[in-house]
Amino acid sequence: MDNYRVNEPFKKQGLYDPALEHDNCGIGAVVNINGLQERRVVDGALKIVETLEHRAGKDAEGKTGDGVGILLQIPHDYFVSEAAKDGITLGGKRSFGIGMFFMPQTEALYRKAMQTFEDIIAKEGMKFLGWR
């Protein structure tokens, strides 16, 4: 960053070529620098999402978005409690993962997608715990 100055154009350097530069959607980040879980971090992330003018916030016509998400730590105590209601025992923090999927709308394809996911989990040597 030594060669960067505010309001000066970027110059070709190493593998970087400003001729190949293009707009992108970018990212926003809100964190607690000490790694503490706080509601205000989530509120800040949602504020970023609400104010995006492109991608998830709004399309070029200003009518719809094409999806956005925020990355959070898994709320361990909550998942332990909820999984227990379904007879699933979870391990310690960071010993399990969760996922959200957009599934096919037909019953046959829905079931096939679920089975495919479960098969891949098994092939990777992991234990599938359940669907919610």
> Main sheet, how many strands, which sense, barrel?
none
| C-alpha geometry | extended
Counted by DSSP, the helix tally is: 3
Number of strands: 0
Mean pLDDT rating: 82
Q: Percent range for helical residues?
A: 25-40%
Structural class computed from helices and strand pairing: mainly alpha
Radius of gyration, whole Å: 21 Å
N- to C-terminal distance:
47 Å
Order of helices and strands: HHH
Return residue spans where pLDDT drops below 50 for at least 5 consecutive residues: 3-7
Beta fraction: under 5%
Please supply descriptive tags for the structure shown above.
single chain, 132 residues, 0% strand, mainly alpha, disordered N terminus
Brief summary:
The chain has helices at 39-51, 76-85, 107-123. It is an all-alpha fold and 132 residues long.
